[in-house]
Amino acid sequence: MKNIAIIGAGMAGLSLAYNLQEHNITIFDKSWRPGGRVSTRKHDNYLFDHGAHYLSTNHSVNQLNEIISRYNLGQVIEIDFAIDYLKNKKTRKKIIIGKNGMNSIPKSIFDNIKVKSYFNSKIIKISKNNNGIFSLFSEKEEFKNFDYVLICIPYPQSKELSKEFINFTKMVNDPSYEPIHTVMLSYKNINNINIKAGLNLHKDISFFMNQNIKFNELSDDCWVLNMSSEYTNNNIDVDKAALEKYAQSIFEKTFDIKNEISFIKSHRWLYAQTKVSYNSISKKNWISSKDDKIFLSGDWILGKSLSDAWDAGEKLSHYVKILSV
User: Quick check: 12 and 102 in contact, CB under 8 A?
Assistant: First the structure.
């Protein structure tokens, strides 16, 4: 049995923890809760899935499907979906959503695996002693005696944290991300909008989704808008009030909304989704130190979806199991 540190409690980190439960697992995350970008925001009586919006019903990660079914974490709904709103392309689409918001999926997985954890703990340094055993350091604390360190945070942060142990000079290209500004807004009265989600609402809004179809307790009409990656890149440090006013004006003009707005707030995801995956560059499923003791994983290994993140963790777990025999 090995002592394994997992840095990052997003879906890749949880996948590793789930698949390596026969070992002593300790999870670290700078956030106060598991899930990473699978995030549900609560504000007063408002609820928004402002990170991952849903899980596709046709994803190919069988283990994730089995877990969602076993723990009764999700439900399938069918909605009117705009494949391309600007081109008036619409369909009926089946999706998987969390029973209590998308974050309820990683939270329930974490609760079921029952591993040691340190949240609100950003790991800023890793060291190795003469016996090949690792220590991790936050700003306030040292955590000792780890045989393996599995890092499952965004690639730029992973690279910085592991650069003393991994040679990155041979990499021709780095994995890359697209940032996204997300805007959450709600109206006091329900708007008559038949399309519940879709792509390309506007040249500057790449995705939109109604939240009432996910949360029955909502009385106000709640929506999430994703600004396009191009807009976000060009306005990475935009004033939040200006961004929110701009997104609101587009949304209301598009759907001819006259109702009074009751809430609006924005959030910037700097590492929102993978643009170029590590696998597409290297055909490999993880990055490792020369001694196979430190590993880098995450959704950026295989792609941009929630299921890609789980798949990346599952693939790496198989290799770690072989090493730890």
Answer: no
Assess contact for 187 and 263: CB atoms under 8 A.
no
DSSP state of 173: S
Tell me the C-alpha to C-alpha distance, in Å, between residue 223 and each of 51, 131, 183, 209, 226: 13, 54, 8, 6, 10
Domains of the chain in sequence order: 3-323 (3.50.50.60)
Contacts of 202 (CB under 8 A, 6+ apart): 86, 250, 254
pLDDT digits (tens, 9 = 90+) for 211-267: 999 999 999 999 999 999 999 999 999 999 999 999 999 999 999 999 999 999 999
> What is the C-alpha separation between 224 and 298, in angstroms, rounded?
25
Spatial separation of the C-alpha atoms in residues 77 and 19, rounded to whole Å: 29
Task: Show Cβ contacts of residue 10 under 8 Å, excluding neighbours closer than 6 positions.
Answer: 34, 35, 36, 37, 38, 106, 152, 153, 298, 299, 309
Whether 145 contacts 1, CB under 8 Å: no
Of 206, 208, 240, 232, the C-alpha closest to 222 is: 208
Please give the structure tokens belonging to residue 81.
């979906």
Spell out a b/e string for 91-114, using b for 16 or more CB atoms within 10 Å of the CB, else e: eebebbbbebbbbbbbbbbbeebe
SS (H, E, C) 30-98: CCCCCCCCCCEEEECCEEEECCCCCEECCCCCHHHHHHHHHCCCEEEEEEEEEEEHHHCEEEEEEEEEE
Q: Which 3 state secondary structure label does DSSP give 221?
A: strand
pTM here?
Answer: 0.96
